[in-house]
């Protein structure tokens, strides 16, 4: 980016400077003025300053520069800038392309081998337990046809494809469908849970419910689950273990 | 009788799952019940309310709706978005079809039985056509804004009422468009912040739509004009379910407080023809939410979160007022979930997703009748075996020597070998089970633990020989003729020669294990078998049926024994026949061939075949008379059935050896303590 030179003042007499065609003292100043869209007053100020300074030294007229040359130079500069921008963009595009390719490569590496994928996508929804331990190549053709025929009707959808390899130890399921189904099922279960047991329902614990009768007896009894047997299970276990060990130690010392 | 030391076991932490849906089938008088863990059970209401079949549950199959269609086909739909059809003969799931509407909240069958309507999470109502072997999607109705929670068909099949959140829509079946949208008032105890969820709708033939909602109201709407006719605020909590009788003169609703209300159509005055709906009877048989109700021609059926199935026969509909008209509450399972290894005193408990192996404690003290002896060694929890996969365990068994454990889910069979060294136990799985042994309905080891008998759900019976680290398949008995009526039960004789299998309509088959062929078939009886056992030495097969009849059949002679004929001639005592719960286990004493030990949920009985049989006039439950009475009186009152009700509720009782009995009890309070929270009840003074 072009650096701006510090300007001391700006004369309001800018109109003359603008009308004048060949006024700028140096090329740079002309560029400044034209590129930055500033009124040439700034540029005009400079030569005035210089003039003031260099007035004592030599009384020359400022260099004559035609508008055309200045324009040409300005255009040149613009072209250069445009070029750099284009080059930058091209570089970025290259970089992005390379990254994309890298990702695709990585993804490909993560996927199952091509042969297995092919079998999965062409196999249809049939029960293959009928032919244990055999590869599906023989039936793939038939399944292909079935799949195409059935794809018009609403019901056929390749949801679950059982294992296609010889060892039959895994089950391939389309994750996309499974996620959607699970989330909907969970939402439905949450709905039922909230509407029956959620906030706003008047629920109480089983203990309190069954103890109501005990509270109203002529001789009041304790609650049905008065003791909490699950309290301190770890502590009780530790105590039991310690007791056993202590007994063994005691036996040993008394024997001695 | 003898003196026994009894191990009273209360560490079986059995908690049944809550009941979610109930569906009644009129033609066969059967009830399908689905629970929150996905299990579907079929009860035969005419066979003394016995649970004859069940389909094991699945973790992802949270059923929300159950219905019967034409031809005894059972469908269920749940929150995983699939419609499942059950095969009642093969006892497995026929197929599961995705409805592509998200979780399914409600399902109903058309009055003609040929179409199925499903209400989904995304607000769509889908119509399916029922074909002979599958169902086929037909079309969608107009999509609504919120989820469709309840559906009902008009008896003529022209209109449908669908209950959603804050409104009810009435659809026209032919066009599929919504005709009316009736907005339900949110008012709940004066506050109208919570959305009003319409939990149930019912469409009557005169065009009235009855709706029950979460504000505790029962409302009557006119579907022709789409307006509210009458509103009954009946509860302070949600009203969760509704069921209408076939004749449309009564309906039943269930609330979240556990109350079940009966509404009837009665005439305004005694001789006028104008009728109105009146709330007649409240029933409080449940402590928790009643999530489902059904109305059979003579009874009201309700089930909910407190896991009881309550069947209340209506007095005015029952013709003969005998014990059949009493309230039936089914709480405990109708099959045995416990198996025991007599030699090592181990008990195997079967849960939905895991198995537990416990060793019984021991005592060195002695005492008199009725004493409680202190334990010198506590009961030990040896093994906690979790099943792999989302399916529930169907059946399990441990061999009598304690070294083999086998269990089966709906798709896999597992066999484990146990090794005991000093006090430690190590488990090794036998891998590579044969392909035909996919899912078993019943598993049994022989007494010498050399053979394994498996009843698979295709109807065939497999005999497998167990070797040190592996097994060898010996023989498969093919399914015999006859339809599958109930779950298969197996019994093997202690000497290993005979195997008995029940479950088909042809009767109980007895196979010769040594020669691997069918020996004979016990004549068929019209009630299903609830327990089966073969006595040692005499090889008598004792069969208990769901109507509380007990038969004894001699296998070598191929005919009923003398004692059994005598019992049939005289008939059982009327109190014996009026028991609610079926006999789930039969045991024998090795030294006393005249004794048979049986138990059901509320009593256990030792039948002494040498004593005279009681007739209807004698006292059935006679505890031991005091010794001060003379011997003559004792001899006169003694009869063959020695019944004791000391240990109840009993889940399992077995004779371990000469002088020891084990009784596994499950107090009802312990089950209730682990249920979800109920609705608060405000009582004066608390």
Automatic annotation (TrEMBL), chain A:
<dbReference type="GO" id="GO:0005739">
    <property type="term" value="C:mitochondrion"/>
</dbReference>
<dbReference type="Pfam" id="PF08157">
    <property type="entry name" value="NUC129"/>
</dbReference>
<dbReference type="GO" id="GO:0003723">
    <property type="term" value="F:RNA binding"/>
</dbReference>
<feature type="compositionally biased region" description="Acidic residues">
    <location>
        <begin position="47"/>
        <end position="63"/>
    </location>
</feature>
<feature type="region of interest" description="Disordered">
    <location>
        <begin position="1"/>
        <end position="91"/>
    </location>
</feature>
<feature type="domain" description="U3 small nucleolar RNA-associated protein NOL7 C-terminal">
    <location>
        <begin position="170"/>
        <end position="232"/>
    </location>
</feature>
<dbReference type="InterPro" id="IPR012579">
    <property type="entry name" value="NOL7_C"/>
</dbReference>
<feature type="compositionally biased region" description="Basic and acidic residues">
    <location>
        <begin position="73"/>
        <end position="91"/>
    </location>
</feature>
<dbReference type="GO" id="GO:0032040">
    <property type="term" value="C:small-subunit processome"/>
</dbReference>
<dbReference type="GO" id="GO:0005694">
    <property type="term" value="C:chromosome"/>
</dbReference>
<protein>
    <submittedName>
        <fullName>Nucleolar protein 7</fullName>
    </submittedName>
</protein>
<dbReference type="GO" id="GO:0030490">
    <property type="term" value="P:maturation of SSU-rRNA"/>
</dbReference>
UniProtKB/TrEMBL annotation, chain B:
<dbReference type="Pfam" id="PF00400">
    <property type="entry name" value="WD40"/>
</dbReference>
<keyword id="KW-0677">Repeat</keyword>
<keyword id="KW-0158">Chromosome</keyword>
<dbReference type="InterPro" id="IPR001680">
    <property type="entry name" value="WD40_rpt"/>
</dbReference>
<keyword id="KW-0539">Nucleus</keyword>
<comment type="subunit">
    <text>Interacts with HIVEP1 Interacts with NOL11. Part of the small subunit (SSU) processome, composed of more than 70 proteins and the RNA chaperone small nucleolar RNA (snoRNA) U3. May be a component of the proposed t-UTP subcomplex of the ribosomal small subunit (SSU) processome containing at least UTP4, WDR43, HEATR1, UTP15, WDR75.</text>
</comment>
<protein>
    <recommendedName>
        <fullName>U3 small nucleolar RNA-associated protein 4 homolog</fullName>
    </recommendedName>
</protein>
<dbReference type="GO" id="GO:0000462">
    <property type="term" value="P:maturation of SSU-rRNA from tricistronic rRNA transcript (SSU-rRNA, 5.8S rRNA, LSU-rRNA)"/>
</dbReference>
<dbReference type="GO" id="GO:0034455">
    <property type="term" value="C:t-UTP complex"/>
</dbReference>
<dbReference type="GO" id="GO:0005694">
    <property type="term" value="C:chromosome"/>
</dbReference>
<dbReference type="GO" id="GO:0006355">
    <property type="term" value="P:regulation of DNA-templated transcription"/>
</dbReference>
<keyword id="KW-0853">WD repeat</keyword>
<keyword id="KW-0804">Transcription</keyword>
<dbReference type="GO" id="GO:0032040">
    <property type="term" value="C:small-subunit processome"/>
</dbReference>
<keyword id="KW-1017">Isopeptide bond</keyword>
<dbReference type="GO" id="GO:0030686">
    <property type="term" value="C:90S preribosome"/>
</dbReference>
<keyword id="KW-0698">rRNA processing</keyword>
<comment type="function">
    <text>Ribosome biogenesis factor. Involved in nucleolar processing of pre-18S ribosomal RNA. Part of the small subunit (SSU) processome, first precursor of the small eukaryotic ribosomal subunit. During the assembly of the SSU processome in the nucleolus, many ribosome biogenesis factors, an RNA chaperone and ribosomal proteins associate with the nascent pre-rRNA and work in concert to generate RNA folding, modifications, rearrangements and cleavage as well as targeted d Involved in SSU pre-rRNA processing at sites A', A0, 1 and 2b.</text>
</comment>
<keyword id="KW-0690">Ribosome biogenesis</keyword>
<dbReference type="InterPro" id="IPR046351">
    <property type="entry name" value="UTP4"/>
</dbReference>
<dbReference type="GO" id="GO:0001650">
    <property type="term" value="C:fibrillar center"/>
</dbReference>
<dbReference type="InterPro" id="IPR015943">
    <property type="entry name" value="WD40/YVTN_repeat-like_dom_sf"/>
</dbReference>
């Amino acid at each position: 980016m072009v650096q701006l030179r510090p300007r001391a003042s700006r004369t309001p007499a800018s109109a003359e400077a603008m009308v004048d065609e060949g006024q700028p003292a140096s090329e740079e100043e002309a560029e400044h003025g034209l590129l930055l869209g500033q009124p040439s007053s700034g540029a005009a100020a400079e030569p005035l300053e210089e003039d003031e300074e260099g007035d004592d030294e030599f009384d020359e007229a400022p260099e004559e520069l035609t508008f055309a040359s200045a324009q040409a130079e300005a255009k040149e500069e613009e072209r250069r800038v445009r070029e750099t921008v284009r080059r930058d963009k091209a570089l970025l595009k290259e970089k992005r392309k390379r990254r994309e390719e890298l990702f695709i490569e990585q993804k490909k590496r993560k996927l199952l081998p091509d042969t297995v994928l092919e079998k999965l996508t062409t196999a249809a929804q049939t029960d293959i337990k009928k032919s244990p331990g055999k590869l599906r190549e023989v039936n793939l053709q038939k399944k292909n046809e079935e799949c195409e025929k059935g794809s018009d009707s609403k019901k056929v959808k390749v949801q679950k494809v059982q294992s296609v390899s010889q060892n039959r130890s895994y089950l391939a399921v389309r994750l996309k469908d499974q996620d959607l189904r699970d989330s909907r099922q969970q939402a439905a279960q949450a709905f039922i849970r909230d509407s029956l047991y959620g906030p706003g329902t008047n629920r109480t614990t089983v203990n309190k419910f069954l103890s109501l009768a005990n509270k109203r007896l002529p001789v009041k009894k304790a609650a049905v689950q008065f003791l909490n047997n699950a309290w301190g299970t770890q502590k009780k276990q530790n105590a039991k273990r310690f007791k056993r060990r202590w007994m063994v130690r005691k036996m040993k010392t008394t024997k001695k | 009788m003898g003196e026994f030391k009894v191990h009273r076991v209360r560490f079986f932490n059995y908690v049944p799952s809550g009941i979610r849906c109930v569906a009644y089938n009129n033609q066969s008088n059967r009830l399908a019940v689905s629970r929150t863990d996905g299990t579907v059970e079929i009860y035969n209401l005419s066979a003394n309310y016995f649970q004859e079949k069940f389909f094991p549950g699945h973790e992802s199959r949270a059923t929300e709706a159950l219905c019967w269609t034409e031809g005894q086909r059972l469908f269920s739909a749940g929150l995983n978005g699939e419609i499942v059809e059950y095969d009642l003969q093969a006892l497995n799931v026929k197929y599961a079809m995705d409805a592509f509407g998200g979780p399914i909240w409600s399902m109903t069958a058309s009055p003609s039985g040929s179409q199925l309507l499903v209400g989904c999470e995304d607000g769509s109502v889908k119509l399916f056509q029922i074909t002979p072997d599958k169902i086929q999607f037909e079309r969608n109705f107009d999509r609504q804004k919120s989820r469709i929670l309840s559906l009902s068909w008009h008896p003529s099949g022209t209109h449908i009422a669908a209950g959603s959140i804050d409104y009810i829509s009435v659809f026209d079946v032919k066009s599929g468009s919504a005709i009316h949208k009736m907005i339900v008032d949110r008012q709940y105890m004066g506050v109208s912040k919570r959305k009003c969820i319409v939990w149930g709708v019912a469409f009557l033939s005169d065009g009235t739509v009855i709706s029950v909602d979460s504000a505790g109201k029962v409302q009557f709407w006119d579907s022709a004009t789409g307006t509210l006719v009458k509103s009954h605020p009946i509860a302070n909590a949600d009203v969760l379910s509704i069921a209408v009788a076939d004749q449309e003169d009564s309906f039943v609703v269930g609330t979240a407080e556990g109350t079940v209300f009966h509404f009837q159509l009665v005439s305004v005055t005694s001789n006028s023809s104008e009728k109105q709906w009146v709330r007649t009877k409240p029933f409080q048989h449940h402590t928790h939410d009643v999530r489902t109700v059904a109305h059979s021609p003579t009874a009201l059926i309700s089930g909910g979160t407190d896991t009881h199935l309550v069947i209340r026969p209506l007095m005015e509909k029952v013709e003969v007022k005998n014990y059949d008209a009493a309230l039936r509450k089914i709480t405990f399972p109708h099959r045995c979930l416990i198996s025991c290894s007599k030699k090592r005193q181990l008990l195997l408990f079967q849960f939905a997703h895991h198995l537990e192996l416990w060793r019984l404690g021991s005592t060195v003290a002695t005492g008199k009748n009725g004493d409680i002896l202190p334990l010198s060694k506590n009961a030990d929890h040896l093994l906690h075996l979790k099943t792999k996969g989302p399916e529930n365990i169907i059946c399990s068994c441990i061999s009598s020597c304690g070294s083999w454990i086998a269990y089966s889910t709906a798709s896999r069979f597992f066999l484990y070998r146990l090794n005991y060294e000093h006090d430690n136990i190590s488990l090794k799985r036998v891998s590579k089970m044969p392909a035909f042994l996919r899912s078993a309905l019943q598993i049994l080891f022989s007494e010498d633990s050399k053979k394994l008998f498996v009843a698979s759900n295709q109807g065939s019976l497999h005999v497998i020989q167990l070797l040190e680290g592996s097994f060898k398949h010996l023989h498969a008995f093919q399914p015999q003729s006859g339809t599958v009526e109930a779950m298969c039960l197996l019994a093997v004789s202690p000497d290993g020669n005979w195997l008995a299998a029940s479950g088909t309509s042809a009767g109980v088959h007895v196979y010769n294990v040594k020669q691997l062929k069918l020996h004979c078939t016990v004549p068929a009886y019209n009630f299903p078998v609830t327990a089966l056992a073969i006595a040692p030495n005499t090889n008598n097969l004792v069969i208990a049926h769901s109507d509380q009849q007990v038969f004894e059949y001699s296998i070598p002679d191929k005919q009923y024994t003398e004692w059994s004929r005598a019992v049939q001639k005289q008939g059982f005592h009327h109190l014996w026949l009026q028991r609610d719960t079926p006999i789930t286990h039969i045991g024998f004493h090795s030294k006393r061939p005249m004794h048979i030990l049986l138990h059901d949920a509320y009593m256990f009985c030792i039948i002494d075949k040498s004593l005279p049989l009681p007739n209807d006039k004698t006292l059935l439950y006679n505890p031991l008379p005091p010794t001060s009475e003379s011997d003559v009186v004792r001899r006169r009152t003694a009869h063959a059935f020695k019944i004791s009700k000391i240990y109840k509720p009993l889940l399992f009782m077995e004779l371990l050896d000469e002088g020891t009995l084990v009784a596994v009890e499950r107090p009802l309070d312990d089950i209730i303590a682990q249920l979800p929270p109920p609705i608060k009840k405000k009582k004066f003074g608390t």
